[in-house]
Structures
1.
Amino acid sequence: MSTAALSAAEAQTVTAARRLARARSVFIGVGRPSTAAILARALYNPRLVLVYESGTIGAKPFHIPLSIGDGELAHTSDLIVSVPEMFNYWITPGRIDVGCLGAAQVDRFANLNSTVIGDYARPKTRLPGAGGAPEIAAGCGEVVVIVAHDRRTLVQRLDFVTTVGHGDGAGARERLGFRGAGPTAVITELGVLEPDPQTRELRLTSVHHGVEVGDAVAATGWELRVAEHVEVIEPPSVDELAALRELSSR
Amino acid sequence: MSTAALSAAEAQTVTAARRLARARSVFIGVGRPSTAAILARALYNPRLVLVYESGTIGAKPFHIPLSIGDGELAHTSDLIVSVPEMFNYWITPGRIDVGCLGAAQVDRFANLNSTVIGDYARPKTRLPGAGGAPEIAAGCGEVVVIVAHDRRTLVQRLDFVTTVGHGDGAGARERLGFRGAGPTAVITELGVLEPDPQTRELRLTSVHHGVEVGDAVAATGWELRVAEHVEVIEPPSVDELAALRELSSR
Amino acid sequence: MRGGARIRRLFGGRACVLIANMAEIVPLREAVAELVRDGDAVALEGFTHLIPFAAGHELIRQGRSELELIRMTPDILYDQLIGVGACRRLVFSYGGNPGVGSLHRFRDAIENGWPRAIEIEEHSHAGMANRYAAGAAHLPCGLLRGYRGTDLVAHTRVAFIQCPFTGEELAVVPALAPDVTVIHAQEADRDGNVQLWGIPGVQKEAVLAADRVLVTVERIVDRIEPRPGGVLIPGWVIDAVALAPGGSQPSYSLDITERDNDFYMRWDAISRDRDAFTSWIDTHVRGKTAVA
Amino acid sequence: MRGGARIRRLFGGRACVLIANMAEIVPLREAVAELVRDGDAVALEGFTHLIPFAAGHELIRQGRSELELIRMTPDILYDQLIGVGACRRLVFSYGGNPGVGSLHRFRDAIENGWPRAIEIEEHSHAGMANRYAAGAAHLPCGLLRGYRGTDLVAHTRVAFIQCPFTGEELAVVPALAPDVTVIHAQEADRDGNVQLWGIPGVQKEAVLAADRVLVTVERIVDRIEPRPGGVLIPGWVIDAVALAPGGSQPSYSLDITERDNDFYMRWDAISRDRDAFTSWIDTHVRGKTAVA
């Protein structure tokens, strides 16, 4: 095991993995969500069903995949379905417990932008676009958002609403007819933001070990509300960190 | 080979088989249509793709199947699809050249009843119902109807319109947005009825060898129009009859 | 939410199982007792192939009543359920004995109300298939080109909408959402993952459309080896798996049992007469016990 | 009408072939020349797996222009086609380099109009998948639960209808009907029947939705042995099959080639710079000839 100091990214990934300790199934893209899910399966939840957008259900990758369609996912999955089947029969009907999503921008109601920075017709930065996110966020049992914690990402106002989290607050999802609970956590490298049960506005509910509440507030692009009791997240244990580093080194 | 006299049913089946000599694909139920299609494949058209409602595409049965889902159809087909895929991706889009249908009643515009004899709510005879017929008749390139020739079957007025053939005549299919040409032949054990190109009303265009035009007219429940030149259908050749009887004896 | 969580509640089991990504493997009698209730809307699917006769017979033995029976092709199995009076309402698209002729108990119920009158709702195959597909997607309805010009329109549940892009009129059918779907498959593993192959019919859709799911299987295997044409259904969308070797006879399970075409032909005579039918049921269904 | 009849017309061949239930097997160059025209709406599909790079490169070599390019995930292949200016309009749902980051040619075209401005129409994956499925069914539109509440609604082609049975508002997307669909598969037989396995993506739908179909394959076999998870596409819905071993690289063909993840990472640097990109295309695409 590497003896390097714990990085903020590692704390973020382990926190996300713990969140999946009791899920039955998780829908993941590549990057940290995928690493977190593979880690959760290895450490806490051997029966966790990993579902990738490419159609692989129940994948058991040994390596962290570069793409959502790597051959290893196909070879190790319980079943592989077509893209229409994936969305129509598995995601939209709410069969997947947790959907993990990233985004370029997140607002205070956990709505997401992955389409464009700047004006749609004359963009400053053209981002990849929606992919599966809108229907994943609408359909999955709950959504965990994994993003960087800075004022460029956590913004006052999205340039484009690609994916509805809690819309304009309490009741918005119900009015739109969405099935799942929506975003239940935004996990950053500083801590965790969770929606207020009443208003659905994100509040800082915990910080990683060594992070000050004020740092998290300062790195947020809106006036971030803070829970009455902000918990300090248990730092990754020796075993968790060893497992994560070993996984990343494969 | 049996030396029994040619039966009317045999003449009917061979006539239907000949009709499939140039088709690329045929959609068939069990009974005479299935026998005709297997015969056509054996005699004239080895590449004929047999499609059964059960989902088997390109079946090559050695025996005449009792049901549309016999194991032999599954074992010999090029591919097997689910029922939703069969209707949505193969039949309705018009990928099948010829659809063969039977019915309890046929009217002068080749509309079909396979639902009920008598009143719907208090039926004299409850028939099996629509099955795939309405969408097969709407979607296939053309439809060949194979029925008994008697006044109980070829009726003035259907008790129930299960399947639209030519509706109320010229233009009806176009108004309903149907793709295929609709019924191009009603093949009976007395001869063949084909729609008039202008009016779409069925006319007697040919009779089997030894059948009088007057017999066919008398056995029809409406005032059957007769083509100017009624052809006499070439009787089954020795080879055709031998093949049919050999097939039936398997 | 199906699979683990529900089955623990229904069948008891270990005290604290938060994660239970599998179907429970239970005896057929117990599975039917727990999963199917009087008055339920029940789909026993299987298109000619893999018809779940063993489970249907167990419904008869347990005396389930007032069922809404859903099935594209009622076949002999629903003829039997109708004949014993278990059916209140039938939803279907083709009620014949394939290759043979009429289903006499189905006809007797509709024509003469014996042993009781039944309500019917009938569709085309395309309509039923799209109703199941909409159910599997948890959509309220499905879209297809169909029904237009037929008398079905006046006698069933179908509506029409205009395509917002082309103006074409299209049929809309309501989704099917059975309380329980029962299917038969060739095999399951010990976690209740299921594989069937051969003609797949509409079974996957019927499973995914239902609130509760029972799968009977020819055999339990240690590990499922995916097959060409295999349809894999994970245990976590299934409530219970029950072992029922031969459980699709007189229908068949490809590569394991053969379709009993003779029985399909003999059924015509058995079912034509009310007394002969009842006597057959008493001897061959009520007089036997569930396999396994 | 596809397969035989068309291909005889397009490629000549025997004088009087009324029945031709098969796809023609032709060299890739010839297939692209005959089947794809300037201005066509072209879908080259393959979801991460089986992306038809060889055929796309042949489009570049033959200088096809003014194309409407349709693809759920533009990936490196469409980055290349956009970068050489072959694309007039792009229809897509996710324009990134999977696991790496931006598609720089895609961004440069949209942000700066280099080498030309392109029109875009973007959807969600669920929307695109249902657009292809509607196309495969030859329906004018498809129905799904989606798009509601997003800014996509104001920027793309989607409408909403009420379910006639429940009143729920549902999204309706227009069907996709490409002039040409191109896919890559592991194998074909000599009649042009095709089998692919592994991640199937939306290829079957894209094939069935198109007016003309080209399939490139890793190998031609005497007889297709159906595989677990195999998707079989009969030759009579395909116009041409072209042999192109390695034709999905740097994507992959499961069990035959491996995904070249290094190249996906290297593409970031190559594509970031206009000159580096052009030079790469000149050397690695224009400077080569089609396989087979």
2.
Amino acid sequence: MDFTLSEERRMLLETTDRYIRDRYPIETRQANVQREEGFNRDTWKELADLGLVGALLPPEAGGFGGAGEDLAVVFEALARGAVVEPFLASGVLGAWPLARAGGHTSVLEQVIAGEALIAFAHGEPQGRYGPSYVAATAASNGEGGWSWTINGRKTVVLNGDTADWLIVSARVSGHTDEEEGLSLFLVPAGMAERRGYDSVEGGRAAEVILSDVRLPAENLLGESGAAYPLIEETLARGALALSAEALGLMEVCKDMTLEYLKTRKQFGRPLGAFQALQHRMVDMALEIEQARSSVMLAAGRLEGERIERERTVSAAKHLAGRVGRLVAEEAIQLHGGVAMTWEYALAHFAKRLVMIDHLLGDEDHHLQRFMAFSRMQEASS
Amino acid sequence: MDFTLSEERRMLLETTDRYIRDRYPIETRQANVQREEGFNRDTWKELADLGLVGALLPPEAGGFGGAGEDLAVVFEALARGAVVEPFLASGVLGAWPLARAGGHTSVLEQVIAGEALIAFAHGEPQGRYGPSYVAATAASNGEGGWSWTINGRKTVVLNGDTADWLIVSARVSGHTDEEEGLSLFLVPAGMAERRGYDSVEGGRAAEVILSDVRLPAENLLGESGAAYPLIEETLARGALALSAEALGLMEVCKDMTLEYLKTRKQFGRPLGAFQALQHRMVDMALEIEQARSSVMLAAGRLEGERIERERTVSAAKHLAGRVGRLVAEEAIQLHGGVAMTWEYALAHFAKRLVMIDHLLGDEDHHLQRFMAFSRMQEASS
Amino acid sequence: MDMNYTPEEQAFRDDVRAWLAAELPNPLAAKVKGGKRLHREDYLTWHALLRSRGWLAQHWPVEQGGAGWTPIEKHLFEEECVAAGAPRVIPFGLNMLGPVLIAFGSDTHKAHYLPRILSDEDWWAQGYSEPGAGSDLASLRTSAVRDGDHYIVNGQKTWTTLGHFANKLFCLCRTDPNAAKPQEGISFLLIDMDSPGVEVRPIITLDGEHEVNEVWLTDVRVPADNLVGEENKGWTYAKYLLTYERTGIAGVGYSKNALGHLKRVAAAQSHNGAPLSQDPLFAARMAKLEIDLLAMEMFNLRVVAAAGEGKAPGPESSLLKIKGTQVRQETTHLLRRALGPYAMPFLPEQFDEGWNGEPVGPDDAGPIATQYFNMRKVSIYGGSNEIQRNIVSKHMLGL
Amino acid sequence: MDMNYTPEEQAFRDDVRAWLAAELPNPLAAKVKGGKRLHREDYLTWHALLRSRGWLAQHWPVEQGGAGWTPIEKHLFEEECVAAGAPRVIPFGLNMLGPVLIAFGSDTHKAHYLPRILSDEDWWAQGYSEPGAGSDLASLRTSAVRDGDHYIVNGQKTWTTLGHFANKLFCLCRTDPNAAKPQEGISFLLIDMDSPGVEVRPIITLDGEHEVNEVWLTDVRVPADNLVGEENKGWTYAKYLLTYERTGIAGVGYSKNALGHLKRVAAAQSHNGAPLSQDPLFAARMAKLEIDLLAMEMFNLRVVAAAGEGKAPGPESSLLKIKGTQVRQETTHLLRRALGPYAMPFLPEQFDEGWNGEPVGPDDAGPIATQYFNMRKVSIYGGSNEIQRNIVSKHMLGL
């Protein structure tokens, strides 16, 4: 057993930390958020050049990482800047299905280089967080030389408005909520109708409508109708990345609150001298350690067998939601009014921390998923 | 709207308070618990003579009260002494079905006078807290001049070992968990096989086995097969009484803890000067006020229509469980080691407070019941 | 004990309800219920309606032009207004300064200011909080130095709600920096915001909205006649006002309404093929909230009824403030949670009146996440919940 | 990072498991698993088995007769023992006094006492807590006054676990009442419990059990040679020991075992016609607990691994103590809850070995409610969780 980081990952961490410290202060983050695309292409390119997208993908896909611990290190580090560039959308949710399905290497190369963006168009209206809820259809009628015709509507597609490519899930058979009968397609984004909008905590998303989108055979990723395992794996990687990001945000919230408590005086003493606040900070720190442990556990299990992977990822995402809310709300409360202002950086970290619970399944969703996979594990042992 | 107590109830409260202060210190309570019957017949008689059993029953049944507020006042006041005499078993759960069914007035008179005991033999193994779970059977085969033959097993029957009479629920038709097909019988306790034992927090209970118990027609209470509404009403009265008792116990726990915090010094200051403990006491006091409000609400609704009665009683019992645990655990924790000892009175109040959650449905049971009746209410409005 | 309203109280409620049904303009109610931004004119419209019925000054005695209501009547009125979608009454003049002037103001002040508050000729703002003072009012630093028949005021106020609509500011200033205790030596001044040296700067809150402001005061000359009560006694008046501010702080009506909204949203959201309202975990969260709210409503009524018997609201109002804010925050939390992914889309233009674009997700999803963030304020302002715990600990528990 | 045990660690675990399977007597394991009362002989039997394998002194270096284990090995051993139903090792001599003597004792002390601890010739008790001192050790009042080559000890100790089995007491006494700071002037004495003036009085705890005691010391003559280390430096040794005591305080093995028990009980209890383990609310409570435990296990391993690299357990062990006790208490709470009405029957005779009456309710219901009450102690003793929070606040957060 060894909990130290490998030399490569320590360097990755230091590189990211240094970039954020030197080149990504909160003012830059806020300026990037204000851009029409919701992020800064130049920043994105710089971060990609540092290898931070490549770190999320395995060598066989042109990257140099891709293990759970790589995701955990990168996303926790990026969180310290509340980075809005599309790491999750393009580097994880978008790139992973492509990396696993094989082929399309030039697209992947461009993604790793920060030159192209992929978005994962999977969630649908009425689908909430259900991983297999897909009403969009893919018909293989082969009209006019095309192999596939896609129809459907995808909702809250992260960075879907500016992506060059979409990974679209569609159903070739089965009922709307079934795991069987799903396929994934690589779709040039221009073929979809897209309506982009801001996300409440910064960043962009889009509603995506696919109307008779016709695709050649090579745009099917993997085997037709058998995409669910890859979708689940992709969502697990996304949930781990978000849990690690939440962890980084928690640490920032905690550090800023500690700093505030030490400097701000009330009734003639630093706020940090009040025992009731001290004990609440300790409870917060304790729960953050628990969240950290769950991220480490899930990271270590990400490439293992399915049940244990899903169980530990759901444990981590559950804690990211539960502890994330505690930390965000306590940090704001302990700061008092100043944390209610747009101008004060904490607000933005806390908002992102809260809203992570709305991405890829909230605290309750993952608790129920943890229960389901624990039952599976008990039944099989 | 008027939240003051009527003159009669204020006198009832003062009488009870005075008795407990003067005649029922914790040493008496502990001595009574140690008796073979688990309580003291003389004490019970004295309390009955003060009118405290009669206060739980309406004039038409020979009492002089019986409203929800009477129950709330009496049980909250009794809790200040952690009284173990069988008010709940005999005065509420036992006497109410008899009072409502009519007849058997001499039995009721004896109960009100503290001379006879009735116990409510309803719960069964595998039944948990389900109000309609009854596997015991009643057959009306009229053999040998008897009208009914009862068979079955009842579990954790409060004061069932020393009761003179049992109110037994049995099924004349239907499936084990159905509301239809239940009857209530008045059974001379000697006709049942009984195995008595101590309860963990003081008091006694029994397993009761009914083997071919034969009864005349007049021992059927009310109409055969239609007893569920009366059972539900009885359980509601019991749950209200327990919620009020829990409230009284919470107040004792809070008061003892406050007293301890004010007198006990650590690190050169009274414990009560530590802000972290102050804030926890405030949270405790706040939740107790919430519990008190819920008891008042349920008391006021006890004689109203079914859905609102069940909804508010379940709200009160849910809070009795949720807040009761908080108060018991915090009181012990804030006392430190001394509350861990048998000798220190707090332990016994806290134990009773915790164990109330195991009687007539726990926090989760009543939350689910609240949800079910809220849905009914919404559907009917 | 009788938990039912008296026939008179019931008749009052019916009267209020009927009046609201007849008079409250539908478009205004729709804006309130839809979480749209309200403008100055919306509040003035609502005030005018109340004024025409004699219900504008709810906390004033009849002889001053007030409604002369009992605490129970105030409670019923608030509940009906929230249910009907009425805007809130802007409290600074009517519910804060008014009672202070009635209790401590000179006859001249009363004669001059009270009618102007009632007529909405003046829009008052509150000048209490300062940067660096937080809940610790006694440490305030804005100074007022006597210069002939004027005070010269210098300092900075913050969290001034709707200060950008106001023409007047009631303001705590330090007049005796050498007072024995820091809360002595504070005075209560009335300041004209058109005076030279008064500058209002917006504060944008974390939800992106502009509701509060900073007010900078630089060598502002304030006539000495604008002093309320005695010099250096401002702390007494401020405390009186803070007690007033806490009446109704439980926000029972608001939370009942929000819970109804939550139930509708949860019933409309699909989760594993069924309405989210039937998900056992989410339903349990809602039921716990509903039980807390039921109990709090009773608790609030008990305190209101006690106030009706002439007992001043004591530390109980601090307990109600804590529980009231917990319930409000939990409600907006569950609303946010109920929306799932649809909590994320942020289209600030849809909060504007007249917007008729296509929403993303459910029709009423728009403002929910921002309301959750905005609602973090209620446990901070008006004396943070930590300050309320200190008050209860000292004054109720004797610790 | 590698979250798997090394082949050597895995082999160690296999070795322990095989040894336990072969050597731990079934009746003893059954008593432990069934929550029966353990007697002095049960502990001695278990110690003898460990001694024969060289595993009794788990925290001692090999040269002193200890097992010489790494922190990870200690952790694995504990986990296997709990799973197998082994009793705990009585810690007072082996895990508390032993390490103190090894670090601070004279050669004479080591030569005399360590073998007697190892051989179970001495059963030590801990004389730290006093009535009125609680978690505030520095305020202790038991005095030791030098009289020639003896100390005369007067005072009272409390919470002395299994003191009724002990023949020796290590004891903190105040030797300099005029020391500049209250934690100075304390000395660490070794007392023979057969000495005149030592009286042990049982404390019955709220679960009705006798495990702890008061020890009254009246003019007890203690040879001055029985002083450990230097006079007035006892506080240093006591702190060292307290740090030791917290190692393994998370109780991961215990809680994993208890969670398994909980799952079996919940699966066997019927609720609305289905197993309680399928009730959505109860299942969610269990799942949250399991997630907390999973995370805590990792957290514990991180701290254990850091200790293996020679980093002394710091405030992290305080965090582990808090979370560990929360998890243990929540587990016994859910066990109690799972039983429903069957938590109430109390048949103390069934905790005795050899009882074969009919239980009321499920076979293993008997001790569950009393265990819940007993388990309240874990957040109080060994430095209450409030004291742990103070430690973390000061030493980790810098507040």
